[in-house]
Amino acid sequence: MKFKWLLLSTVISLFLITEVSDTPRPPEGEIRRFFKVETFFRGSDQEVEVYRLFGREEGPTVLIFAGIHGDESGGHLAADRYIGLRLEKGNLIIVPRLNLYAILTGKRTGLSGRDMNRKFHSSDENRDPDDKVVSLAKSLMDEADVILNLHQGHGCYFPSWIDRNRNPVRWGQCKVIDISIFDLPDGRRLELERVAREVARKANATIEDKRYHFHVNNTDTLSQRSVHREQRQSLTFFALARKHKMAFGIEATKSCPLPQSISYLTMAVNAMLERTGIEAAAFPSASPVEIEKDLRRNEAFSGLRVRINGVEKLVSPKSEILLAPGDRFQVLSVEAEHTRGWYPSVSRSPFYNGMGKTFSVSRGDQLILHKYGKKVAVFPFSVKETNSPQIETSI
Ligand SMILES: [Zn+2]
C-alpha cells in the first residue's frame, strides 16, 4: 500500500510541477480557474515554466520575465516569490527562469553562448538554440498589457556622475525605459517616463538610504545619439516597439547582500503592480529578514527519490549513493516543502537539468543538486561491484 502511494505521488510530482505548497492557495476545485502552469522544452536545459495567475475580478495583465541573465539571481528569485499570490483583480504571467541554461551555469549568456537580451530583433529566428526561447517570450507578450524584465547590475544608476559606483553608466536601482513617450499608430500614447517616475517615487518612499533610491534610466534607444543602441535588441524594446506594450526593465543593485537586492526588486514590482491596477490579498513581503528566511527554507530538503535499475529508493541528505558498474540511475524528485527550482545533475554529464534522466555513472562522479542556480548539496557516488546487493526496495 505504502509503495503504491509513493509510486502514485512520484507520478503526480512528475506531471504536476504546479505545486505551490508554501503559499495560500484557492480551494482545490478552483485551482484551474485561478492558476495554471505550462512547461516548455520540458526536461531540457532550456526548460521554461510559464505561470498564469488569474484574479477573481477582470483587470490588466502584467507579464514578469526574469532570469534572462543567469548571473543575476536576484531577478529570478524575486519573480518566483509572486507565483503563490492570490489575485483579487487582474492577472499575472510569470516566467521566473526564462534562460534556465544561463541560471544553472551562473553565466550571463545562454546555450548559444550569446546574450539572450540582445536577440530580440526580428530577422534572427531559429539560427541557434536560444531562438526558440526568444520566440516563446515574444508570443507571451501578446497576452499582456504591461511587461517587466527583472535584472541586477553592479553599482547604482544615477543621472549624473557621483563616483565610480553611482553614475549614468551603472545599472543598479533603476527603471529602464527606451523612450519617454511612445506614440502608437492608433494615436494612443504610452507614457513610460511618467509611470516609471511614479513607481520609483512609491518604491523610494520605503527606502531610507537615499543612495539606494530608484531612478529612471531613459536609454533613449531609438536616438542616433543614444549611448545604449544595443538596447534595440532587448526584450523590453521589442515589447514596446513591435508589440506596442508598456515595457520596463527593473534593475536592482548587486552591491548589497542578495536578500536586500531581492527586497529592492520586490518593492519596485509591488509598486508597479499597484500602479497598473493589480490587486492581491497580499503582495510579497519586502523585508530582507523575511526574504533571507524564505531563501533558507526553500533550500531545505529531506531526501532524493531515485530509481536504480528500475527500483525506487530514498537517498538521505549527506549520504553516499551506492551503485555497481553499469547501473542505471535516475533522480525522480526532491523531497521538499518548496517544490520549484530543483535541478539535479551528474558531474561530467553534459546535462544541467538531470531530473528524470537516466545516467550510467562512473567512479568519481558526483550528484550535484542545485536549487535554482545555487549548488545546495553534493552526493558522492560509490561505484563498486559489491554495491549491487545493497540496492533494495527500501520504500
Ligand atoms: Zn541583466
Rg, Cα atoms, Å: 22 Å
Bound molecules: zinc ion
* Coarse morphology: elongated
**How can the largest sheet be summarized?**
9 strands, mixed
Terminal CA distance reads 11 Å
Please name the fourth-level CATH homologous superfamily of the largest domain: Zn peptidases
What is the structure about, briefly put?
This protein has 395 residues and is an alpha/beta fold.
Would you spell out the secondary-structure blueprint of this structure?
Blueprint: H1 2-15, H2 31-34, E1 35-40, E2 48-54, E3 57-66, H3 73-80, E4 87-95, H4 100-105, H5 131-141, E5 146-153, E6 156-157, E7 166-167, E8 174-177, E9 182-183, E10 189-190, H6 192-204, E11 215-218, H7 235-241, E12 246-253, H8 258-276, E13 279-280, H9 288-298, E14 303-308, E15 311-315, E16 321-323, E17 328-335, E18 342-346, E19 358-360, E20 366-371, E21 374-383
Parallel strand pairs: 3-4, 3-5, 5-12, 6-7, 8-11, 16-21
Antiparallel strand pairs: 1-2, 2-4, 4-13, 8-12, 9-10, 14-15, 14-17, 17-19, 18-20, 20-21
Helix pairs in contact: 3-8, 6-8, 8-9
The chain binds zinc ion.
